[in-house]
Amino acid sequence: MDDGRVSNGVFVKDVKFHSPSTAAACILGRSVNGRTAWLNKDGKMLKELQEAGQI
């Protein structure tokens, strides 16, 4: 966050993580299930998109 990749809890530059949970933990500052924490612009969870075969 100190290097300008995150602003107000939103990634503003690309950052590569090995899992969605690690990326979410980076933003939230705690352990979290990334598959349920990340939402797309339509409010769908990453888990829903994966299960529907959309990603």
Characterize the structure shown:
The protein is mainly alpha-helical and 55 residues long. The chain has one domain. 35% of the residues lie in helices and 7% in strands. It contains three helices and two strands. It has a two-stranded antiparallel ribbon with strand order 1-2. Strand 1 and strand 2 form a beta hairpin. The longest helix is centred in the middle third of the chain and has 9 residues. The chain is globular and about 35 Å long.
Number of DSSP E strands: 2
* SSE order, one letter for each helix or strand: EEHHH
Question: What is the strand content?
Answer: 5-15%
> How many domains comprise the coordinates?
1
The largest beta-sheet arranges its strands as 1-2
Instruction: Specify the structural class.
Output: mainly alpha
Shape: globular
Rg calc? 12 Å
Largest sheet: 2 strands, antiparallel
Level of helix content? 25-40%
In terms of per-residue confidence, which ranges show pLDDT below 50 for 5 or more consecutive residues? none
Distance between the termini: 27 Å
Topology:
Blueprint: E1 6-7, E2 10-11, H1 20-28, H2 34-37, H3 46-51
Antiparallel strand pairs: 1-2
Summarize the structure.
The protein is built from 3 helices and 2 strands; from the N terminus they run ββααα.
List keywords for this structure.
single chain, 3 helices, two-stranded antiparallel sheet, globular, 55 residues, 2 strands, 35% helix
